[in-house]
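Forwarding the complex inputs:
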Amino acid sequence: MLLAASCVFYMFFIPSYILILFFTIIIDYFAGIWIENAKGKNRKLYLIISIIANIGVLAVFKYYNFFVGNIEGLAAVMGWYPDIPLLTMVLPIGLSFHTFQAMSYTIEVYRGNQKSEKNILLYALYVMFYPQLVAGPIERPQNLLHQFREEHLFDYTRIVAGLKLMLWGLFKKVVIADRCGAYVSNVFDNPYQHEGQTITFWVALFFFAWQLYCDFSGYSDMAIGAAQVMGIKLMTNFKRPYLSKSIGEIWQRWHISLTSWFMDYVFRPLGGYRKGRDRGAVNLLIVYFLSGLWHGAAWTFVICFFIFGAQLVFRLYFKKQINWLFDLLGSKRNKRWNNILHTAVAFIMICIPFAFFRAHNLPDALFIMKSLFSFGTGALSIGNSSTFIYAIIGIVILYTVEIYQEYYSKSDALPEPKSTPLKFVFYSSIIIYILLTGVFDASQFIYFQF
Amino acid sequence: MPASLYTSNSKPAKGGSRLQLIKFLKRSLILLAMIVALDQATGLVMHQLYFNAKSGKEYEINYAFTKVADDIIIIGSSKARRNYNTPLLADSMKMSCYNAGQDGQSLLFSYAMTQMILSHHKPKLIVVEMFPEELYYNEVHYDRLNVLLPYYADYPQVREVANWRGIRNTDTASAFYKLFPYNIEKIKLLSQAYRYNSMWFDLLKGIFIKQQIESGFFPLHNTLTEKEKQQYINKFEVMKRGERNRFIDPLKLKSLIRIINLCKENKLDVCMVMSPVLKRYNQDPVYILVNSLSKEMAVPLLDFTGDNRFNDIKYFADNHLNLTGATYFTSVLSSYLKNELSNKMKAK
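Prediction (whole assembly, two chains):
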């Protein structure tokens, strides 16, 4: 039944694209069995076939036009103007997510950490489980597959916790992300109209960081919550990344399922830090380059993530100097100031490359970067004042909740009252606030496009 | 320590599971009842705030929808609001005049506005500001129809347009829609609070700030530079190229035709006006369509988009006219309107 529901869910978008999913499911299903039964070099051969099939689907649907564009651009530099046909298809929704999830299955079978799944329907459900089909979390077979075989009894605590998580995810999406998004679009869709307004660009950049986080983590919360209601426990995908005290920590708390995927299947096989600092730095840059490419077939994403990688490499080499700078700013004065300082610096550092993530193209991104550091004296452009106020209120609520979770409750629970009647008032008030202030237009989740 | 949102290690016994289900259903019902009660209460408070507001966008819309009683009414988007100097037009035409243009709106809203105005007042002339670009499909124009929702319960005139928010992108020919012909907007409108979505801050402001409705004309005061003009034109071109699925919105076209028909049914004069723009439209399909519609329906179309008298950046604030431009344009327009009206009178 879950599989049928997942098929219907996927077919809501473009029905025929389900055939692409079936193609990779069939290949990976048989590859898993063959890898398990084969010996010697054949095991690797079947793994490679599976990986080529998955990457091939990604290459055709996601990267073909990007490659063609770059080839044509290069050719034009050399005075040659080939007319290579482009694919006019819309990118299948969530392609990068379920492709990576499928690959983790065959890799884990190859590594001997997971037995191959003999029931094709269960394997199909592993790839297509609808809460996380289109935007993750990217699960591992060891965590997910066995749960489909287990009996899930009605558990009040589990179901209520799942529903609360879904509500908080919805709040983050419609009250914060989409509200911030309105301001961000106003600035970054027309960057040239805000020339000289440095402060406007910074505010828009911060708003975009909150938009992206609340959009994606909001979806993850809804997916994890929905799965939890059904008795399936998905992995945590975000852990309050903007309260991190270093950029390295942010990446341990942001899109955890993808970061750990790259760590397990790319970084560590490349040698990680085991072969010294220089090799570790190169490995980091490779991972972040691939991560950028995973996000989108555009140079803006690649550059954005390459900068993230470069920031980490910089930190790897200059940790002492960075700490000395923090000391200079008085980070040792007291613990609270130390926390605020480190958190603020990490947040600002992570925001800067987001200019590339959000810009429509490279010239726009460069213009935004220039504007951020031009120290223009133009006034802050508020745009629609009520939109701005709603966004600010949403961000204040977000930080209140996350600071409570991080420093006071030391858990992921919402700061709810203890008495049951007050809990009813609390949760119905959240729903009414969502109805009053949420954005209910046709906006999509940003990460669906990946 | 409170239970984590992400984890739950409890494993109920099979018998306990039934009891838990009953507890869950009971509490769900209590929560649902509380949500409904709170929603109704919020709706009542917001209704009071909305219809007693003394300033702001909501107040202006409410005024135009339920109170306006002028002879000439300008309807349209920000082009109407910024470009038509209504006090000057009133003086020149010797008739009272109100500018009901609303920033960011489109013909969809103008259609609802026309229905609301005609339900309580019959003006002598309705001027429809026609920004050709507006006729193309644009998601945002449907989002912005949320301003109609406070009227949904009490004013059936707005329901048709408000319901379009819910079916804008629906493939009504699909098998799924035929099986479940739902309109998501109607479901959302079960909530009273939702009808005032995104309004509470403006409504609270409206309590403290009083605003006198005068003419509805809100001029812009800055003047465009040559560089900015080029940026606007470039941005427009980029936007046009970027919109792959650019198409004329059948609902907007329907709205325009309905506005004209409503005016004709009520025996009012109506004319379409294209106020000056930075860039001419003459080859654009939508421009050609509006021209042919004007001939087909025998409605005058006064086109100033290619008028060389306005081919000067000193008249523009951005893509809208500034006060100087609006004043000049209105003086030109009023002489056209006088001619138009006197010709009609003669014909009658």
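Chain B has one domain: 22-347.
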